[in-house]
Amino acid sequence: MQTKLKKHLKTTELFFKGSSFYRGVVLTIAIVLPLVVLNLLDLFAFAPAIALGTFLNAPSDVPGSLRRKINGTLISVAITVIVTFLVLVTKPVFIVLILTIAVLSFLISLISVYGFRASLISFSGLLAIVLALAVSKPDLNSIIIHVGFLGIGGFWYLLVSLLSYWIFPKKDDDQLLSDTLALTGQYLKIRAKLLTKPNKREKFSKKALIIQTQISEKHETLRELLLEGRKRSGRSFSNERRLLIFISLIDIFELALANTIDYSKIDTLFGLQKQHLSPFKKLNKELGNHLIKLSELLIKKGELPNIKHINKITDNTEKAIEAYVSEISLPQARDGAITMRNLQDYQKQLFQEVKAIRRVLTKVKNNAKASLVVQESKQFLTSQDYRFNILLQHFSLESPMLRHALRLTVAIVFGFVFGSLLDLKNAYWIILTIIVIMRPNYGLTKERSKNRIIGTIIGAMIATAIILITKNITVYMVLAVLSLTFAFSLIQQSYKIGAAFITLHIVFVYALIEPNAFAVIQFRVIDTAIGATIAVLANYLILPSWEYKNLDSVILNVITANSNYLRATKNLYHNKEANTLRYKVSRKEAFIAMSNLNAAFQRLTQDPKSKQKQSVLIYDIVTLNHTILSATASIGRYILNHKTTPASEEFDTIIKDITTTLNQSAKTLDSNKQIVVSEEKEIQQAHQTLQKHYAKLSDKRDNQIKAGQTLIDTKTLLNLQEAHLISNQLLWLKTLSTNLTKVTTKYHSVFN
């Protein structure tokens, strides 16, 4: 009980010190301050428009480079001003108003094709339609004044946002780094469970894929924040510290991916001796917990957690290897012992990266500088293409974004007409619910609808209880402000709780101006339920975009990225100095492509069961690509961190064959054309040569043992490890790539 209380208190402290709450406070101040000041100056008539302008232009202010933040807000201001003017001007004529809403909804929705920030600008534009419907302006002069002050509100929010950025310039950086540390820690803990729990591997693998996607998304935002910031303001101690943590996080992520073991081989090798793997599992778990504890230190002050326990478990892994060798005896124990050595080597590297993060958090100024130069850093940034041609490419019913824009437009127009014909009070709340809930994906729309309704009901119940207890206007004002702050703070973390606070805010604002607050609560719940129902039905019935129909390009991209990554790894083996940068860029691209495929598969699982066509086949494609990525990362990571022998011709031959096989899978998806593959006999000979090399090293070591040389020298151990890893991973990659070709051929025949 006491432990749970401490955990809740820690979570609460982290929330109040985090960037989400800070952003909520900033937005609340930006909205409330003009209301208070203009009221004191007896100019309150202009205050609501400024408050609306502030509220409308806040969504696009998300973590990212300062340049994109400013440009995004300015574009948002322009769109919201134009949209509000057009809606207010056409409002007197119902038919013209409907046509205006339809055209604006469609065009604004399409802005989302330009990425995440653009989708939030699009949301602001759609929200402007709703709030314009809530405003009554009788003539052109009053409309112009309202729109003018709306624009002032947008510029006011930009000013407040820049001021808050100046006060705490690294708030978003620290929050994102903290979140990424925590997610990486969770990922390591899940990977630990995969080692010794064969019956639950599929369950844990799916969890790992979800977290991988989340980590990759965080990495992309951090690249923009840290590398763009470094390019703009140069190298500073605080920037270098954060960049060093980020680099260590990328290395940890790659290490974890690189250690995706052939678990069937693990089960065969260790059988009933799995107890020898327990220290390795425990070490991964402890390293994960340690990262989670370190993540908290980026948000709140505290001392570094003790690492003595981790040092002790690390020593236990050495004892586990010795115990295994003693129990099984050499040479029978060699494969298992080398597998454990590779696992130990991986965990030692993990531990070194964790120690590196600890050193950075101690703020020691003699830490190693992040060596990434500006020219190199550009290659790691994913640039967003803003050409008009991108928009034109989506003018096809094959485009999910165009289908979503049409679907959303129909839902908005229907919702407004439906509410108007029934003469519902505040019918625009129906449109608001549709805009907030509706997503291109059916499953996410359904989930958000459920959470929105539940959150609204919870908020309505709490508001009802408070209104029954008190009729105090001051209480309503305080609660309206507080609920607004918490709504903005929690909407991204928990949509259900955020929706509850939004409802509380709306009810208390109306309670200040409406004598019958219970009527407001009643209509709020009804309109939300109607809007949510329309959103779900529209997603299901109007030009539905089921995920299985959109997977071809995503799968093609990940296969191509994996093939490029494998070629970059081959080049790295030949010359580290010349090819390290290209290797890391290819690695980033492969990770992003895999993250996109993971996300697409998660969306597929959210679709109705009847629309999850061939989900088992698609899951096979996901897992095969993921395992290919992991096996490639395993080879690359070993090459980067060890002094290796020269790459052999056999290595090049097998890599060429594997990339050719991957390209065949890509061609099958792209055009169903077959390409020339290498001679199987040549590949078998190359594999045999590599295996003979490992066997020769093993025989040499056996002779040393027979001669009484029981202690293995470092060079021999590293040569054995290298030969074992390269030979086994290439053989595994060959099998995986062949299986992928079979699965993609079957996939193509089913869906085409």
TrEMBL record:
Protein keywords: Cell membrane, Membrane, Transmembrane, Transmembrane helix
Membrane-topology descriptor: Multi-pass membrane protein
Protein name stated in the entry: FUSC family protein
Source organism, top-level taxon: Bacteria
Domain Integral membrane protein YccS N-terminal, chain residue ranges per copy: 75-346
Membership in a protein family: Belongs to the YccS/YhfK family.
Domain called Integral membrane bound transporter: residue spans: 416-537
PANTHER family: MULTIDRUG RESISTANCE PROTEIN MDTO, P-HYDROXYBENZOIC ACID EFFLUX PUMP SUBUNIT-RELATED
Pfam families cross-referenced by the UniProt entry: FUSC-like, FUSC_2
Ranges that cross the membrane: 21-50, 70-89, 94-114, 120-136, 143-168, 405-422, 457-488, 494-513
Annotated localization: Cell membrane
